[in-house]
Amino acid sequence: MDPECSQLLPALCAVLADPRQPVADDTCLEKLLDWFKTITEAGSSLQLLQENPCLVELLCHVLKPQGLSARVLSFSLRLAGVFAAQESCFQYLQQAELLPGLFGEAGPLGQAAWSAPTVRSGWIQGLRSLAQHPSALPFLADCGTLDTIFSLQGDSSLFVASAAGQLLVHILGLSLQGPAEGPPSPQACDWPVCAQKIVGHIEGSLRSMATPQVTQALNVLTTTFGHCHGPWMQVLWERLSPLVACLLQEDPLPAAHSLVDLLLSVARSPVLSSSDCGLWETLAQTLRRLSPAQAGPLALGILKLQDCPQALRAQAFGVLLQPLACVLTAADQAPGPPGLPEGTTGDSVTVDTLLSSKSACAGLLCQTLAHLELLQPLPQRPSPWPQAPLLGAAVTILRFCNGSAAPASDVGGRLCAILAGCVRVQRAALDFLGALAQETGPQELVTQVSAVLLEYLRSPDSSPTVLKKAFQATLRWLLSSPRAPGCCDLDPDTQLFLRELLPVLRKRLCSPCWEVRDSGLEFLTQVTRHWGGQAGFRHALLASEVPELAEQLLRDPESYVRASAVTAVGQLSSQGLHATAASPEQLGGQKESLLAELLHVLSTDSEGFPRRAAMQVFTEWLRDRHADVAEDTERFVARVLQAASRDLDWEVRAQGLELALVFLAQTLGQPSARCPYAVAAPQATPPGPLAQALRALSRVRLFEFAFRALFDCDRPVAQKSCDLLLFLRAQATPSGGLQEAEGSPDVPEAVLAVLRSLDLEGLRGALAESSDHVEKSPQSLLQDMLATVGVRGENQADCY
Amino acid sequence: MQGTAKALPGAAHGPKVRARRESGLSIPTLWVTAAWRPRKERGSQPGTPGSEGGSGALSGKSFNSSRKGVPGGTGLGSRTQGGWGPGPGRVLLQVQAPGRGRGPRAGPAWEPGLRPLHPPALGSHARPLGYAQAPPRQIRLRSVPPPPARVYLPCRRRRSRRCWTRRPAPSHRPAARDWLSAVQSEGPERGRAFPAGAPEAGAPGCACAVRAAGLVPAELRSWAVVGQAWSVGSGSAAATGWGAACRMPEIRVTPLGAGQDVGRSCILVSIGGKNVMLDCGMHMGFNDDRRFPDFSYITRNGRLTDFLDCVIISHFHLDHCGALPYFSEMVGYDGPIYMTHPTQAICPILLEDYRKIAVDKKGEANFFTSQMIKDCMKKVVAVHLHQTVQVDDELEIKAYYAGHVLGAAMFQIKVGSESVVYTGDYNMTPDRHLGAAWIDKCRPNLLITESTYATTIRDSKRCRERDFLKKVHETVERGGKVLIPVFALGRAQELCILLETFWERVNLKAPIYFSTGLTEKANHYYKLFITWTNQKIRKTFVQRNMFEFKHIKAFDRAFADNPGPMVVFATPGMLHAGQSLQIFRKWAGNEKNMVIMPGYCVQGTVGHKILSGQRKLEMEGRQVLEVKMQVEYMSFSAHADAKGIMQLVGQAEPESVLLVHGEAKKMEFLKQKIEQEFRVNCYMPANGETVTLPTSPSIPVGISLGLLKREMAQGLLPSAKKPRLLHGTLIMKDSSFQLVSSEQALKELGLAEHQLRFTCRVHLHDSRKEQETAARVYSHLKSVLKDHCVQHLPDGSVTVESILIQAAAHSEDPGTKVLLVSWTYQDEELGSYLTSLLKKGLPQAPS
After folding, report:
1. Contact check, Cβ <8 Å, A366/B306
2. Where is the Metallo-beta-lactamase domain (chain B) (predicted)?
3. What is the rounded distance in angstroms from the CA atom of residue A702 to the CA atom of residue A712?
């Protein structure tokens, strides 16, 4: 602890111990505790206490029933725990009888303050910090602490209840990781006292018929098996698994969700999954017992396991596919299996769930689709992957949702009625359909996919969120579509699809919903980025009115759309697909017009997003030596920098510096490929004499911009400018470059002189620190807390 | 079957029918007694938002009671368009728990395991509400003075197919959840036991409601209803953690933020099985994960999007929406987000403002990007004021004007008849550019209100404004500069209007600047959403747009060094970075200058330091900045004060109140005041604590026209003072409740009628033949019961209405005849009377 803080600490402790001095801002206490944690992690807590007796005095104050605020009480308990985490300090506080006072019956436990959840939470967190060494265990076992923790598992506060469970896990882990040689015996009497008590409590809870208690016990075990990997885990499971098995016999199954979590946690535990322990059978049994909605997460968990019997995996996959099997069966006009793995047929329970209500149906389908989406890219996914039936199911669900399906069966009809217009399911199914694009399927199905995507994109009933998903799925299918054999262009089916898609896109770009226009533009940008070079795509796009519409959207009333339009036309233009590039004779004038239009956006748009987008486009254009730019690069750069330097948005200015750096690199030579800001000797020969390059920089007013930005009130801008000038100096001064520059009468000598005189390295160091590093310092915190004392409370609650 | 419900004020008749169980068997029935009373018009008027009549509950034509179908059917029927709000009258039903009533509840008939007399088939989706072993319950409908023709029928939940409450089930019996599942999947034929006294059976408050609005013509509102139905099943299961999606007659509220706390508002509400998150704010005081609410408590319930039905954002302040992009784009919520149009438009600006500070100024990684903010905003469903938005089939929300900032709204969240109102931040007094918050008398089950100024009665705003202008004026007059750090949009515009008006009036020349181009942006939004401003601004808008300032110009960094007086609005509002801090540094050393802090500053910021009186500030590079300029704090935040909060409570008339967004001590005071004044429960949970409120959800029940007509034909029309009983059978068909005649019920359910008759033996000393005895009985009854139809049938038996009397010889005593009397429960009174009459013996026959 630095001396300034040491000096301030006694006064602060006095304030905290004084119940008449309210500590208004609870963030201060949190930050104070963070600071003490940092100090104790770095050094001796005992020494800290000895050097700052005010801290012990503060803890002693807590023992007096004097009406300390709940916040300070909670803070003190946590602080005591932080100190007692070191064994020496623990002994010291024990000897001073502080710990039993704080955490035992005599402490807050017995006071009225205990009714405040923050105090109970502080008590638990204090113990959690304290329980770091074996000597804490007798303390925990003796003071009746464990019983209190047990009862806090059912606390009215979620935070307290959860923390109590976590603490039990921690204590159990600590007590069983003792110095005992080898794994403990299964006999409980041989176990450490704390472990005996906790395990006894868990056993009691598992036998209890009260579901909350069962849930608490299962949650504790789940965390235990998730976090502890000692050899005793196996013994623990052997001891508790019969009780878990008993739970599975109960009707109804209590705490199914927690039971699933526990079984998966055990299955993932390296100690247990390798040995059998009857675990696989338990998992299989549980899969059979759970309702379709409950079984989904378990099935997914099983399929994600690395080593798991094939039969169990097959069973789990079957469970996971059940709802889709039902859908396929319901939709199937012709009898026969829907093509899913053997044994996967829509069972009646799943059908009943799907038909029971709209929310149950949507819930189960969304869950299933999300699970399969998660599973799809995993290496351990079931093989063979039933791509075709899954595609069919996704398409069918989408058709049920938009009413375009004509199910033959009664169940299908009812499903159709339930799912009609269900946005939730539509979104989930489109996501899943998009994920399936990683692999192809039978052509017939791919055609169906295209058709259903088009239906959704076309439909006036599709909500903006559904349309966004539809665009995303379409993009994924388009980009995964196969190339025509022997040529690099698109295959005929994709061409056909594109021809149908572009009019839909055109329509969507005129949507009254800005979200839809924006999604359309994002789609256009992406597809152009990937397919800009494909002749088929270029032809189709230029034949449509989409590029013109995109340009019109530069004047959209919504700033997000304007920004997306800027990006889209920038991309189109980069690929030579800009709307007006079609006619060669008008080429020059209209190119100018796009550049002018984007410059107009940069200079006049009232919102930051389109201006930022314009800067990004310009930087890209300059980097790629876009034809418009290459015509007169200096003029272009000068105009952009001039606009950027005046901009009120810091990101536009920062982007301006990015563009300046690209220009600098092109003029002077490439900076290091890895880090554009690194100061290094130039690796490439400057394209021309240095003086000439510097004059060019001067002409575009780059120096003015950079020096002004160096003292920008927004730190990232100043930082970027500093890096740019460092690069410039490195380029201009070493290895004789400077002499050459000095030799020329036109050299901006003043600039070089300024560069030499500035302590750019020092400035960069200062800027590298966050702007609030002083405010975040502990000294600042202590000062603030002390200064706040006595200040009228009115400011405190007034958030805005 | 006997049992009386506790009488409520204005109760209708007691149970009219009592069945004796002499036969040892009985039909499991649910008695419904309802009383309608004419609506007392209170509160909102038809046509005003939130005051639409109760919705017509039925769609099927046999149940759709139209006015033309019923003589004199006027009034009520015309108010039955969809929507919320009080309908024409309300009738409560209470369930008496089995065994708790006076009747012979504990008899073998109610033991689990008995098979029904006539197992109903579950075809065509129609099924009775409950089944065989369910104990009978006596239900009484009562009229409650205020609102509408809603009949509250006690039952466990409105739709047993949905998920279940998760309370601990008694150990010796299966939790009702599975019983119900069994009913659904297997049908009751298997005779699965409905546990006697099943969990929650008859628990107080477990009521579901029957809304009859629109089906009963006004003249018939005073009908009492005696319905008969299979009892409503119940289910329960224990919950793990918060809000496993359950359908239960309770509302649960858990603040993850803003519970006895200001900042990071995030309140989880579970209502009618739907889970809603109210606000998703961040805490400006932390730079780590603690700035966001701890969402792990909800992510542990499985996929967020499956678990949460929607998120509602009250307004654009970061302590209410700052965590939204994190929640939607990083934690993974992909469901709908509701906010008003102005909030949707302005939110990204504030979020961008904060992102800049968090990511680029503090160098924080793992923070949301601009793209994420946009993607998040694209998930938003923007709502209009007073527009009822259907989130799904059951959940609907509605926004009310909240004042506070542009676009701020209070939200009513409604599932069936249960509703919660969340105020967000609001202001009950109009200011220079916004109006006062308003809500109709929506009588929610719960009002969740902010309580920032729980103990403050704020002075007149005029005084504060005068004070502000005086200070600015004085500083400018002496040649000083005034810095006003503000957040991008919000109160800044209020202060701008104030200064602009003053400058105009006093004809001041000193320039006023607004930094970062927000004047233009603000203008844009205030023009766009002019309907959200107050009346004065709207009225004068055509002549003069109040947001097109004459004196306030855009600021350029170079202006800070200009000599002479000036006033500058600069962001950010807490002097923790950017332009406002830069200007502050330049001007702090001059005692002629002044900084006015119009809002709260979190610890660590320069704003906080100077407000707490620190005058020597360490800046970067160990530089010490001496603050000589004047520092003023003037709160212009637009929150309701204690008086305003009380006013709102009075306006909405909630059943309970829950305080958030305030300090515990202050809340305590307000809580007591609310409880005293309004006689309602008031809660103030800390973060993480759950408040559970039992509710009486209402379920619309249609009453068949035929049934009503039949009942009407039987006698006088009921009146407000004299309700009449109406008998019917309550059935559930295609997820809706219908009160129909028993004949129709049998038809709907595809059941054959079984008759339950009570029997009694009466011994008569009569040595004559059985036929003669029967003839004597006939003559006797014919003479005594003149108003009844007494018949002597060819087989020798005698009937009086449904009562059947047969004479038989006594097996042991030839001088005695046994009269076997049997009657249906409908004729129970007459049956009893006859029995007692016969027991007295027959008159001596003339010899």
Report:
1. yes
2. 263-480
3. 15
